[in-house]
Amino acid sequence: MATTPAAPERVRRAYPAPVRDGDDAFVPLAARIGAVAARHAAEHDRDATFVAPAYRAMREHGYLRLPVPAELGGLGASLRQVCYAQAELGRHDGATALAVSMHLHSTLTQAFLHERGAPGAGQVLRRIASSDLVIATSGGSDWLWPDTVATVQDDGSLRVSGRKVFCSQAPEAGAVSTCAVLGRPGPGAEVAHFSVPLPSPGVRLEETWDTLGMRGTASHDLVLDDVRVPAEAIVARRPWGEFGDVLTTAEVHFAPVVAATYLGIAAQARDAALTRARTRAQPRTLTPATTSAATTSAATGTTASATTTTGTGTSPATSTAATSPAATSPAATSPAVAATGAASRAEGGGVSAAEGGAASRAGDGGASQAGSAASQTAAPPHGSRPATVSPTAQRVAGLMDARLRTAWWSLTGALDDLGPGYACTPDTLATVMIAKREAVLAAVEVVGLAMDLAGGGSYFRRSPLERACRDVRAGTFHPLTPEATLLYAGKLAFGDPGVTE
Q1: Rounded CA gap, 88 and 257, in Å?
Q2: DSSP state of 341
Q3: Is residue 1 part of a domain?
Q4: pLDDT for 415-436, tens place per residue?
Q5: How far apart are CA 202 and CA 209, in angstroms?
Q6: Could you report the per-residue pLDDT of 26-57, keeping only the tens digit for each?
Q7: Helices 79-92 and 244-280, packing angle to 10 deg
Q8: Short name of one Pfam family for this protein (predicted)?
Q9: Residue 2 pLDDT exceeds 80
Q10: Could you tell me if 219 and 166 are in contact, meaning their C-beta atoms sit under 8 angstroms apart?
């Protein structure tokens, strides 16, 4: 199999690409915020500090009011448009995109409720538009079974005590959307949902967020100590252990926004890896001796000895990447693709242009194809050899694109299934959660493949691919987790009403 000359232009940018008018209406805005976020991303990741500069840019340019209806002072972005914007923001900094996704999905939920006449939703949306109110949530902490307790007072207010973990963007939030169980947690208990202004008497922030990835989200703990919640702040009630309308609605808007965020991280990792692979595939000046040796070896089907540069010097290495049919098998381009080109994988190496070179191509078709391989790859004497990208690298790139495109199609297909006048039901919840599952698993796989393609340099802390590798792992922890999603969808398939996980 012949190598392919590397075109001089930049690599083609990964998906998502807009397919409908207005899909990318807010992508330039997200890119503007992302440019600010990217300048500080490494610092916030290193120090586990909040992405405050990006939030200042969001306030300045209106990103926090992205889904607020235009008539209420917002930008009027649809759920689909928010997903495109978040995919763009995720390209620049995963932590910034994930942090604001918590605010955006809450805002989308309020817009959904407002459109259907829910009291109070319009007031919240106006506050977001007029004062850039940031809403934090504690859904990842509470889920269906909160252990925060509330006692009902004579006037209908609540006294709430408990600890909320995973409160992303807590340092910036002006309110937290949360819940508490009335009385003793357990079957038969009732859960009240409400919001608490930040700061409030009895609420304190404990900086506990020191994690593997997404270190800039500042998802610290909020501790509530006998906090008073007025009766009018209670927006919904549900049975303990069940979704109820309130959680179902929130999660239907959470899943697509978060899915798009992780796909954006993976898409940028793909682009960075392809750029790295193209950079390595630069023309190399050949001497008459090496030109003759390469041509002779390709014509005879023998294995040539090459000189490989390593981090400590040069050493002879034998290129054998394409001498076996296994070199082009799916196993050879799995996340363990490093085995196909170990000789060329010095620091910063990766799946290199040397793999599958002219010297070892006879194994693809025997001596009958050797002359053709030589004619395609032999360099002119005393000249420069064209830059080439190996078939192995091409296949890794193709696999990344296949996973990214399929995952994005899953997400946009799920949104199409919802339709313009969607209801938030168990079936709707399963639809978007299946799409989220596909997105987060694809993101993890694509970033791993990108590191394989980029090589050992991606293992350094200074590499954005190293940070992307850590950041995308967070995607598998958001409820519903990938495994819980399958179980939930399977329950519905067998006729379960889907009121609980």
Answers
A1: 12
A2: G
A3: no
A4: 999 999 999 999 999 999 999 9
A5: 21
A6: 999 999 999 999 999 999 999 999 999 999 99
A7: 40
A8: Acyl-CoA_dh_N
A9: no
A10: yes
Question: Which residues are CB-neighbours of 303 under 8 A, at least 6 positions away?
Answer: 297, 318, 319, 320, 323, 359, 360
Are both 357 and 265 inside the same structural domain? no
Q: Are 338 and 450 contacting, i.e. CB atoms less than 8 angstroms apart?
A: no
Instruction: Give the separation between CA 118 and CA 246, rounded to whole angstroms.
Output: 12
Sequence-distant (≥ 6) Cβ neighbours of residue 473 within 8 angstroms: 212, 213, 444
Residue 373 has which token pair? Answer: 């391989």
Token pair in block for residue 158? 């609540």
Six-digit token pair at 319?
């290129």
Helix (H) or strand (E) holding 487: helix 482-493
Contact, 459 vs 451, CB < 8 A?
yes
Q: How many domains does the chain have?
A: 4
Q: Which helix (H) or strand (E) holds 4?
A: strand 4-5
Together in a domain, 370 and 291: yes
Centroid of chain to Cα 465: 12
Q: Which class for 314: exposed (0-12), middle (13-18), buried (19 or more C-beta within 10 A)?
A: exposed
Identify whether the C-beta of residue 379 lies closer than 8 Å to the C-beta of residue 291.
Answer: yes
Element (H, E) at 384: strand 384-385
The one-character DSSP state at 174 is S
Under a CB-based contact definition with an 8 Å cutoff, are residues 492 and 498 in contact? yes
User: Tokens 């041509």 — which residue?
Assistant: 295
Q: Which residues pair with 313 in a beta bridge?
A: 310
The answer to whether 340 and 314 have CB atoms below 8 angstroms apart is no
Residue 451, φ and ψ in degrees, nearest 5: -65, -40
Residues of the domain holding 205: 137-241
- Same domain, yes or no: 303 and 402: no
Q: Using H for helix, E for strand and C for coil, what is the string for 227-249?
A: EEECHHHEEEEEECCCCHHHHHH
Q: Is the pLDDT of residue 314 over 60?
A: no
Domain co-membership, 401 together with 270: yes
Crossing angle of the two packed helices 94-115 and 52-61, in degrees rounded to 10: 40
Whether pTM > 0.85 for this model: the answer is: no
Nearest to 468 by CA among 186, 203, 213: 213
d(CA 297, CA 218): 58
151 and 192 together in one domain: yes
Give the pLDDT of residue 352: 46
What is the rounded CA–CA span in Å between residue 241 and residue 136?
Answer: 22
- Location of structure tokens 């993890």: 444
pLDDT at residue 310 greater than cutoff 50: no
Is residue 382 left, alpha or beta, with left meaning phi > 0 and alpha meaning psi from -120 to 50? left
Domain match, 398 and 484 both: yes
Q: Which of 366, 386, 406 is the last residue of a domain?
A: 386
Q: Using CA atoms, how far apart are residues 401 and 232, in angstroms rounded to an integer? A: 50
User: Which of 12-26, 94-108, 307-321 has the lowest average pLDDT?
Assistant: 307-321
Q: How far apart are CA 461 and CA 346, in angstroms?
A: 17
